[in-house]
Amino acid sequence: MKTPVTSARLKEHFRYNWWKYLLIVLLGFGLVDLLYTVTAYHPPREKTLSLYVYGYTDDLKLTSYLENIRETELADMEEISSVRMLDDSTYGPMQLMTYFSAGEGDLYLLSRDTFLTYASDGSMIPLENDPELMALFDSSGVSLQSGWRRDTKTGETHLYGIPQSRLSGLSLYAYATDGYLCMPVTGRNQENAAKFMRIICRDMINEPLGQGEQQNEQP
Predict the structure, then answer these.
(1) Does residue 69 sit in helix, strand or coil?
(2) Of 152, 151, 169, 153, residue with least CA distance to 161
């Protein structure tokens, strides 16, 4: 005969088995979250750009500025974002190396010491080969001397970074200690990253323009 189900038996059952039902609920939430993560749309790498800052950012201002670039000047990009890393002596270097190794990040704003380390081993793209970028600074009379560094592997000297001291407006959005704006050789969207670099440098050589003025200004 089947044992009759009574309220007393139910209470006894839940008294010893409540954790099983809690586990089932938690696993259910986890599976739904995993399914959403796997099936959610992610823009292809060639349709995204990102600025990695090894220092500090004003998240609201920077997000608004980057979205304005995407809407008005790089409309073929589906996403332009930023990532902030803490400039510390322990976790920061490991995090930065992981991002570099994984090919993440199209532009980096690095502190001086970090920039010197990466530039000296050829981890940055030479910028002097971009005539539009060079014309931008030449016409403004801005010296980039401190951004030229020697690659210890090849012995060649190249412009591996734009000093943040020459981009006075950038500090309102992002800041790295005596920073340099540069492009990693591991980036997987370099053509668009070069456009991204030119736009930021154009806007930040002087104090940032207003939103309306930015839209009317041409690189």
Answers:
(1) helix
(2) 151
Structure tokens at 83: 């990532």
Rounded CA-CA distance 72/55 in Å is 27
Asked whether 115 and 183 are in contact (CB, 8 A), the reply is: no
Residuewise pLDDT in 10s, the chain (219 residues) = 455 655 665 555 556 555 565 666 666 665 555 554 555 667 787 899 999 999 999 999 999 999 999 999 999 999 999 999 987 777 888 888 888 888 899 999 999 999 999 999 989 999 999 999 999 999 988 999 999 999 998 999 999 999 999 999 999 999 999 999 999 999 889 999 999 999 999 999 864 444 444 444 433
* DSSP string for residues in 84-141: EE---SSHHHHHHHHHHHTT--SEEEE-HHHHHHHHHTT-B--STT-HHHHHHHHHHT
Q: Tell me the C-alpha to C-alpha distance, in Å, between residue 49 and each of 167, 179, 200.
A: 20, 20, 13
Alpha carbon 56 to its chain's center: 12
- With CA atoms as reference, report the closest residue to 160 among 113, 191, 120, 199: 120
Topology at the third CATH level for domain 45-216: D-Maltodextrin-Binding Protein; domain 2 (3.40.190)
Residues 6+ apart with CB under 8 A from 82: 50, 51, 52, 53, 57, 59, 62, 63, 66, 174
Tell me which residue of 107, 110, 97, 85 sits closest to 180, measured CA to CA.
110
